[in-house]
Amino acid sequence: MTAVVREAVESADPALPALLEIDRALARIGKRIRVLKAIDWPVELEERFLAAWHRGAPELPEPPNAPQALGDEIAALEALMQRIDRGHPIGNWLYKSAWSYHVAARMLGAIGTPEFTRCSAWLYGRPDFRYRSQDITNADSAEEMLAITDEMVGHRLIPPVPFDIPAERFAEMLRERIGTMFVHDDVAVVLDPRLSSKAVASGKRVALRASALFSERDLDQLLQHEAFIHTLTSLNGKHQPNLTVLGLGAPRTTRTQEGLATFSEIITGAIDIARLRRLALRVVMVKRALDGADFIDVFRGFLDAGQSEIESYRSAARVFRGGDVRGGVCFTKDGAYLEGVMIIHLFIRKVLQQGQGELLGMLFAGRLTTSDVIVLAPYRESGLIVPPVYLPPWARDPQRVLSIMAFSAATQRLRLDQFDLQRFVDFEDEVIAECGTYG
Which of 64, 139, 204, 238 is the most core-located residue (most Cβ within 10 A)? Predict the structure, then answer.
């Protein structure tokens, strides 16, 4: 935004200068609250656990669950929140973002205790939560998805995917694909030997676990999920000239961001049935952990569902980050992926149904929730929020998205349990018999 435009916007809304100052202050505080880094497990715990498992004497892992001292950040956030005018749409958005950082800081100060899970549930939800407008919980949806995929193809019949691409070669392949998208920014693809996740993305880089082996399918999935959503929305937020917080990713945006990233995999055909099951299974296992299952129980649950020992360990470790490996206290973020993609699916359908396709592009203007898109949309016209620099290819034509979703909705009415393959043969014979013979 030029100085002339900024002056015009601020003169039209005298409250904006103070709110923009609060935005910058919140960004400075928010950058110091790093949730995933604070609760990450050391990679050596994996080898220790699996060695004991192979000996037939599994032991609960002992992660370094040290609470984070974030008292200064909490006090600064509280002081900032008291200054915010919640009656102003931008003020209320800033307040909610500050609130989420406040909850995240309290959560990190309560690592290993029930308060950790209570704060986690406020930010990322719980698998057993049911929306007022719906009849089922997130866990119910996950169980149903597992049942549907079992019905379509039993999980033990899913052909194995070869993971045979070394991280270094995979990084080169990813760099080639990323370079064609982010033409105005330098996004690095780096190898990290101590990364617990297989891949993590930010606005500046995509990090890959140096010891991991990747598949061809990983390339499309990571490209759509990590690069073309997480990196893309972060960069678009950083290109916003006025509202700095749009480039940060306040904790409250996680459900929408992970849902959008997963939806991107689905709408582009990058996802496969094994990954879809993995996302649903994580929701089920978060609920089990909340209900009291310990780390070994959850590890066995993933193993029984068809995951490898290494994958089962890493999936269980995701659930218990910052929690208590004895059960009852866990990190609920993995429940946000499936819930988030359902929210995004409903939001996009409603947006396109109501002829407001311009809101689809707004989803990518920064790190936003679906609620933010609606509330902040009027500020596009004033220039306070500018259009996204980057859009994933699938989002550039809303009509294509709508056609895919309409077809999917229509086919949901078909009952697979009412016939088998022989029915295709029998039906033709029945039509001919009904018509009669000639001669």
Answer: 139
